[in-house]
Every structure is written in structure tokens, then in C-alpha cells.
Design brief:
By secondary structure, the protein is of the alpha+beta class.
């Protein structure tokens, strides 16, 4: 959190507004799933609660909550509807991308009035089909489509991952592209998180000129090497700690919502195959609930600790005393693997609730089945390969280096910046 402002009252206000809106979000969830996107009314209602401002710069009227505070907001939204939680998570946790792209991009993204998320990103990995070619005073983008464009339907800009090559080998750049230069494919036909509208993206034409300041070497973004003009300590917090602590919070919120729904619908329900007339009085239910609690509590405590450590590391960097690069690398690897475990435990907890909810819990109208699907989708996110993340963290624990790869979750971001020729 920035040392210059106290956000606790604003946090309480945002949380209360989300709780008030929550039943409406849950009521709209089925229709949104069928549409494959949130309605404009839902985006506007979420915006009115302030959830799209929680990670935005204070200099531009944003709330600039700490990561620990943002975690509470993402969890509360996800408790009511996982897809809404995903949309808020993306809007909050990717603010480091425009901030890492320099002051001019920051001004363009946060300066104008806007209803909805400010930030979206797509295909920030080496397999990107996007291409960027350096030209006089800018870049020419081509290729695509860019996949999994969460929030792109509603954000003023989307940062597109592109491969560039100036003759010394390919590298990844992030290109900030305005909404009106993008076209969206109707290809979000998925098992869960259906209302996020995370469609694939194309350019409006075969090529697009992007001004020089909007296309940035992604190593400069991940390394926070460009001056954003922003003063808060959150802009110096580890980006992986920020993004993935909030991602785990999304899983936690969905599981909390499923648990509350289970307790609500189970009162007075008989347990088939037994003489129990009230499911909440059956010992088998009590044993199951204790297991659900333990999985959820483990995920929650671990995630809160990661969010708090992310804030602490940001404050250290802002004070001019950053943590040792080796520690930052190990912390980032730890956040990734612990987020994968949190997602796994929450999905398992929901599956226990689902299995003990009877056959009616498979109905489209029942929130538990949607929570079940949404939570599993989180575990399948490309950045949450549990086995790969476990190996990388285990290598660090054993004194070896993790795998070196390009992309948004690279752990090789604490090495010295490459020397630029000319």
C-alpha cells in the first residue's frame, strides 16, 4: 500500500457495495453463461461498486489498495459469481503491465473517464501468433489471433503479446492496442468461467501501426525498468506476487460461496440411503464439512501470507532497500506453486460439496455446479501447471536454478538487463 493514504475505509465501502450487489450477480449468472459474456448492466454495476479501481493509480483517482486488500475484494466478488470474480481479478492484477510500459501509456490508460476494467492482456508467451516489426517512430503489428483475451471486451486498451526480432534473435514485446482497433471472435465455448467472455482477438486490419511508446520489450515490463511516474509502493511490488495472490483469492471466494450455498440448501434435506431427515444433522456431513474447512482454511492462510509479503516487498523497494534478487525469485516461484495448490484444494472442497448435494445440484440453475466448473477451470489455467511449478520451486529449494523460459510467469526476471547496442 502507498504510505501516503489510508484505504481501510474505502475498502470497507467497496466490500459492502459488493455484498449488496452479490445476490444480483448470482441471479444473472445463468443468463451471462448462456450469452458467453457479462451484460453491460453487470459491468456498469460492478464499476459502481469500485472494484475496477482497486488496483488503479491514486494519481488518476484509483483506490490503489494493497495487494492484501485487493485479495479481499476479489474473493468477495467471486463468492457470488466466479466469472465476475475472474473479470475483477484480471482488471486488478494486470495493472502492472501498463505501469511497466512507461508514463505515456499510464496516462492513456488511466487518464480518461471509463466504465469497466481498465486493463486487459492476451498471449504473453513465446507461442504468441502476434508479430511486431520495428519501423520509423513505431511498430507494425500483424498476425494473431491472440487467445484468452479476458476483459478485452470491456477495456479501453488490450496489451497484446507479440514476437519481435531485430536481427539478434526473437523476443517478446507487449503492444498496447485501443479497443476500436480490435475485433473479437465468437470462440469462447468452454466448460466454466463462461461469462468472462475471454475470446480470441484479431486486429481490425491485416496490419496495425502502433506508436513507439505503446510497444515495449516485455523484459522491460517484467523488470519494471521504465519510469511510470507513479509513487505508490504497489508499483514496486513483485508482479507475480500481486497477480497470483489475487488469483488464489478467486478460488477461495468461489469455494466460500459454494460452502454457504451448501449449508443453505441442505437444511432439512434427507440423506438418501439413510434414516437422516436433516442433512445438517448427519455425522457424515460433519466429517465432510471439516475436510472442506481444512482445505479452504489452508488455501486462505497461505494466500493471505503471500499477499502480505508482496506488500512488504513493495514497501522495501519503494524505500530504496529492495530484497535480494535470489529471495525475490524464490518468493515468486513459491507464490506460483502455492496458488496452484490453493486452486487445487478449493476445487477439491467444492467437489466434496457437490458430491454431497444430491442429483438436483447438477441443474443449470444451481450455483454449486457452476462453482464446481469454474473452480476446475482455474486449476487448468496455463500458468498453474502444478507439476511444472512444483519442479521449479523444488529446484530452487535444492539449490538449482528453475527452468528459464520467456513469458509472463518467467522467473528469470532478476538477471541484469541486457546491454542495448547503439
Amino acid at each position: 500500500m502507498s504510505a501516503t493514504h489510508d484505504t481501510s475505509e474505502k475498502l470497507a465501502e467497496v466490500l459492502e457495495k459488493v455484498r449488496t450487489l452479490g445476490p444480483t450477480l448470482r441471479e444473472r449468472a445463468l443468463e451471462a453463461e448462456r450469452a458467453g459474456r457479462h451484460s453491460d448492466a453487470t459491468i456498469a454495476d460492478l464499476d459502481a461498486t469500485g472494484v475496477f479501481d482497486i488496483g488503479s493509480p491514486a494519481e488518476f483517482g484509483g483506490y490503489e489498495f494493497s495487494v492484501r486488500q485487493q485479495l479481499d475484494v476479489v474473493s468477495e466478488v467471486a463468492k457470488w459469481d466466479g466469472s465476475c470474480g475472474w473479470t475483477v481479478w484480471v482488471g486488478a492484477s494486470t495493472n502492472w503491465i501498463p505501469a511497466g510500459s512507461g508514463a505515456r501509456v499510464v496516462e492513456e490508460v488511466y487518464g480518461p473517464a471509463w466504465v469497466g476494467p481498465r486493463v486487459s492482456g492476451s498471449s504473453h508467451f513465446p507461442a504468441s501468433r502476434g508479430r511486431a516489426k520495428r519501423v520509423d517512430v513505431g511498430w507494425i503489428l500483424s498476425g494473431g489471433p491472440w487467445t484468452f483475451g479476458s476483459d478485452a471486451l470491456w477495456a479501453p486498451y488490450t496489451n497484446l503479446g507479440c514476437i519481435a526480432d531485430d536481427g539478434e534473435g526473437p523476443y517478446l514485446v507487449g503492444a498496447q492496442v485501443p479497443l476500436d482497433e480490435l475485433r473479437f471472435l465468437d470462440d469462447w465455448k468452454v466448460a466454466g468461467m463462461r461469462a468472462t467472455g475471454s475470446v480470441s482477438i484479431k486486429l481490425a486490419g491485416d496490419e496495425l501501426f502502433v506508436p513507439e511508446h505503446r510497444c515495449v520489450d516485455f523484459r522491460d515490463i517484467t523488470g519494471a525498468r521504465l519510469d511510470s511516474g507513479l509513487k505508490g509502493s504497489i508499483w514496486q511490488a513483485p508482479s507475480l506476487g500481486w497477480a497470483f495472490s489475487l488469483m488464489a483469492g478467486m478460488s477461495i471466494g468461489i469455494a466460500q460461496g459454494a460452502l454457504e450455498r451448501f449449508l443453505e440448501r441442505s437444511k432439512g434435506r434427507p440423506v438418501r440411503g439413510t434414516t437422516y431427515k436433516n442433512q445438517l444433522e448427519a455425522p457424515l456431513t460433519h466429517l465432510m464439512l471439516a475436510e472442506v474447512h481444512s482445505k479452504l482454511q489452508s488455501a486462505t492462510l497461505m494466500t493471505r501470507a503471500n499477499a502480505e509479503e508482496t506488500d512488504r516487498l513493495g514497501a522495501l523497494a519503494a524505500a530504496g532497500t529492495p530484497a535480494d534478487p535470489e529471495y525475490l525469485q524464490k518468493f515468486s516461484a513459491r507464490v506460483l506453486v502455492e496458488t496452484a495448490y490453493a486452486a487445487k484444494w478449493c476445487a477439491e472442497a467444492i467437489e466434496l460439496l457437490q458430491r454431497n448435494s444430491g442429483s438436483t445440484a447438477i441443474m443449470e440453475s444451481e450455483p454449486i455446479q457452476r462453482a464446481w466448473r469454474d473452480a476446475r477451470v482455474i486449476t487448468l489455467h496455463g500458468a498453474l501447471n502444478l507439476e511444472a511449478l512444483s519442479e521449479n520451486y523444488g529446484r530452487l529449494m535444492a539449490g538449482s536454478q528453475p527452468h528459464n523460459f520467456a513469458g509472463i510467469t518467467t522467473l528469470d526476471r532478476f538477471a541484469p538487463a541486457p546491454v542495448k547496442q547503439g
